[in-house]
Amino acid sequence: MEAGLKLVVMGGSWGGIKASLAVLEGLPADFSIPILLVLHRLRNQEGSLQELFDKKLRLRVLEVEDKEPLLPGHVYLAPSNYHVLIERDHTCSLDDSELENYSRPAIDVTFTSAADVFAENTVGVLLSGASRDGSSGLSYIFDNGGIAIAQDPAEAEVAVMPQAAVDRVPGCKVMNVARIKEFLLSLHEH
Amino acid sequence: MKLEYEKLFEQEVEALIEEIHTQYGYDFSGYARASVYRRIKRFLGQKHLQSVDALREKLFSDSFFFENFLQEVTVNVTEMFRDATFFLSLRENVLPLLSTYPFIKIWDAGCSTGEELFSLAILLEEEGLLGRTKIYATDINQKVLLQAKEGIFSASNMAAYTSAYYAAGGKREFSSYYTSNYGSVKFSSHLVKNVVFYPHNLATDSSFNEFHLIICRNVLIYFNRQLQDRVLRLFDESLVSLGYLGLGKKETLIMSSISGNYVAVDKNNRIYRKTN
């Protein structure tokens, strides 16, 4: 295992809830890498997603508060109507500036910020979605030595988002959700 | 951008932040870095500037350009009745208690272009309190204060604002508050008759009055913990005993040095009351 704390950043939109649940359900409560999940949501929607994920996962699920520290054993959900940025001290800063790719939270914003801080220790996973958000961020992760993973577009409920990733990042790993889960488990340090 | 460039960029921005402080007096040292870097990159792109050096040269030779920079780097995205439940809670849980005062003073800190201010004024109007309330609307940015004073907003957002207004317990026809004209709407100036607008920098300026309610939403997220704490202490000094503080939906005073003096009136909507 390489030294240095890792971070998994995961993004999706249409079909992304189902796909991310399928990946995360298999992870143990003490999973050694913090996971930050950015799903496109209806604007100003209340936080029922947190309850849904918390019920289904062994990991602890939190909706990101401003300056929230990223800790192992947790899944952090990007809140509706905020971008999530990552600070040098591994805390999250929220940002309510302009939409990117018609979205707030935008996956590109978080992926890029993750790579700026975690560099080659960043694992980016782009799942099912009907938008092209995330591929530029995934490319940035890959270019800076991190691991880029796209859900197999053939399996994805909506292929647009992972297909954009495959087109934009030819070096990315293409996997179905079962393989993504196995891959993440292989990174787990006991 | 590769990370080596990123590191270099960040070093240059750090130097620039120091220079801005000495040259213009604006202190960004307590701002959350991830956002500052992102805003500056965005600004470089907008202005077709190739480097931080090119930016520095323009900033220090053209104060008008600096004003523009200030406005873009500090986030001024806002909306009316943002998080309608916050305004509903103000209406139901806070305004009835404020109405017991003969004269009410409110500070809208970081009022930006005024959407929140007009939302608040409408609430006060409908609860019969506007006539005996004075609102101090402040922002770091002089330019947005002028916009806030005008109360002119894009008509394209009015459908969303109208439903947010009703979700916030709105009691009238929303359109009775404004007149439409060529793609924009102008809110009635009587709503801000008792509003004082002036520049105030939360990072460096001090307390200037005592208030019954302070509203500062989605401003603290742009600051680091230390600066957040400074600002919360400033609010604490500026609130009367039993005064109220309203923060953004994802902001809290729990981790701050003033938390012991406050109870949550509405935890979900981040409305707190001073206990002493």
UniProtKB/TrEMBL annotation, chain A:
GO terms for cellular component: cytoplasm. This is protein-glutamate methylesterase. InterPro entries: CheB_C, Sig_transdc_resp-reg_Me-estase. One of its GO terms (biological process) is chemotaxis. The active site is at S13, H40, D133. The keyword Hydrolase applies. SUPFAM superfamilies: Methylesterase CheB, C-terminal domain. One of its GO terms (molecular function) is protein-glutamate methylesterase activity. Keywords: Chemotaxis, Hydrolase. It catalyses: [protein]-L-glutamate 5-O-methyl ester + H2O = L-glutamyl-[protein] + methanol + H(+). It holds the Pfam family CheB_methylest. It is an enzyme of class 3 (hydrolase). It comes from Pontibacter mucosus. Gene3D superfamilies: Methylesterase CheB, C-terminal domain. Signal peptide: none annotated. It comes from the Bacteria. The keyword Hydrolase applies. Residues 1-186 form the CheB-type methylesterase domain.
Automatic annotation (TrEMBL), chain B:
Keywords: Methyltransferase, Transferase. Coiled coil: none annotated. InterPro entries: Bact_Chemotaxis_MeTrfase (IPR050903), CheR_C (IPR022642), CheR_MeTrfase (IPR000780), CheR_N (IPR022641), SAM-dependent_MTases_sf (IPR029063). GO terms for molecular function: S-adenosylmethionine-dependent methyltransferase activity. It holds the Pfam family CheR. Gene3D superfamilies: Vaccinia Virus protein VP39. Residues 1-276 form the CheR-type methyltransferase domain. GO terms for biological process: methylation. This is CheR-type MCP methyltransferase. It comes from Pontibacter mucosus.
